[in-house]
Structures are given as C-alpha cells and as structure tokens.
Amino acid sequence: MKNIISFLFIWVISHGELFAQDCACKTALDIRKQQRTNDRFDLQSSLMALQKEKAGTCAASYQEWLAESFFLRNQFDSAKESLDKAYQLLSRTSCNEKSYYNYYRLMSSLNFSIGEFTKSLEYSLKALPLAEESGDQFEEAVCLLQVAQTFNKMKESGKGIEYARKVLDILEKNKRAIGESFSFHPSCLCVFLEIPGY
C-alpha cells in the first residue's frame, strides 16, 4: 500500500503544472518537464532561476518547491513559512483559483502531518474540486485519498470510506494507465485507513 501512496504522491509532485495553466510560470513548467524527462537533470541549478523571481507565480512556485523540500525532511515550521510566502505571492496576482491547487494540496498534507486534521480537511476539500475540474483522475484520486485519510483520523471513518470507494473506482478504471502490474484490492485501502475488520 505504501508503494501506491508513494506513487500517487510522486506523480502529483511531478505533474503539478496541470493546475496553473491560466497563470503558469513558464520556468517552473520547464523545470518540471525536464525533471521528468532528463535523468541527468540538475534540479538545484534550475531552481536557482526560480529563486531569482521576486513576485508572481514563479516566485510562488519556488516557495512551494521549498515547502515540498522542507516537508519531505519533516521540517514542518519551515514548510509552513514557505507556504505562507507562496500564498502571499499568489494573492497579489490576478490568477484564478486553479493557481492555488498546489498550495491547498501542500497545506492539507502539512496539517495532516502535524495532527491538525480539521485544517487538513479544509484544504483537501478546497483542492478536490480543482482536481475534479482538471479531468486528471490521478490528481482527483490523490485528493480523495487525502480526504478519506483525514476523516479516518478524525474518527469519522464512515465518511472516509465514501471517499475511499471513489479512489478505488478511479484506480480500477485507470489500471492500464498505471500498468498491469498494479494490483489493488479494497482491503488494502481499508488496512491503510486502519478500518477495523480488515
């Protein structure tokens, strides 16, 4: 199950550009594209170009990248500071709600990790309609899974199961896109969500 979650998390990180098309930072989009397609890609020097940006979506993208880096190292206070900066930068633009997707997604994960489940749910529920509107079912599955996990941690597993079932439907429909080696069974999700009886 951890492999499935890791796959979805990595996939979301590498495909974050889907949600900022209306106010996209071309530099960030290019970096993500090169990161996916070039084995020898030097992420550090490419991020230096984003670091030079002082305003707009490119500066916000850099702060989100920093937050992801801090988050992966369990430096939650630093991740929160970077996300606060990203939000301030985004709020100064005239970009639409889609541009906030990565911010919502990261804030949900951050709050989940520090046990602030109500806040995590709030951000997940803001990200979910954006993921649904994108038409990207993997993004939608990740958001649904975050909502399911959060409800479970809030001792509302009945609500969590509703969202988890939607994840199962999406993953089953997209099995070929993931690869035939990907096998998924509802009991795996129930174990992951710590639902009694499985």
Describe this entry's structure for a reader.
The chain is built from eleven helices and no strands. The chain is mainly α and about 200 residues long. It has a single domain (about 1-190), classed as Serine Threonine Protein Phosphatase 5, Tetratricopeptide repeat (Alpha Horseshoe), CATH 1.25.40. Helix 7 packs antiparallel against helix 8. The relative contact order is 0.11. Residues about 1-20 and about 180-198 have low confidence and may be disordered.
Task: Spell out the blueprint of helices and strands.
Blueprint: H1 2-14, H2 26-37, H3 43-51, H4 56-72, H5 76-91, H6 101-113, H7 117-134, H8 137-153, H9 157-173, H10 175-178, H11 186-192
Brief synopsis:
By secondary structure, this protein is mostly helical.
* Residues in helices, as a percent range: over 70%
Q: What would the average pLDDT be, to the nearest integer?
A: 79
The first-level CATH class is given as Mainly Alpha
Q: Report the structural category.
A: mainly alpha
**If helices are DSSP runs of H or I spanning 4 or more residues, what is the number of helices?**
11
Unreliable segments (pLDDT under 50, ≥5 consecutive)?
1-21, 179-198
Beta fraction of the residues?
under 5%
- Write down the domain tally: 1
Assigned CATH superfamily = Tetratricopeptide repeat domain
General shape:
globular
Counted beta strands: 0
N-to-C order of helices and strands: HHHHHHHHHHH
Largest sheet: none
First-to-last CA distance: 14 Å
The CATH architecture is Alpha Horseshoe
Radius of gyration using CA atoms only: 17 Å
- CATH fold-level assignment: Serine Threonine Protein Phosphatase 5, Tetratricopeptide repeat
